[in-house]
Amino acid sequence: MTKFVSRFVKDESGATAIEYGLIAALIAVVIIAAVTALGTTISEKFTEVVEGMGGSV
């Protein structure tokens, strides 16, 4: 029983998996924020182009 507890305390594979999960979540949040900001900018530019050509949105 003592060996099991000492192995369990020394095992860091679960901590590593959690760290990778947190990193993946952070990267996903950054990508979502970038795509949202870029999408808004592109939408505004297309609206300007359409209005510049005499069209309506």
From TrEMBL:
UniProt keywords, alphabetically: Membrane, Transmembrane, Transmembrane helix
InterPro entries tied to this protein: Flp_Fap
Transmembrane regions listed in the UniProt entry: 20-38
Protein name: Flp family type IVb pilin
Organism field: Brevundimonas vitisensis
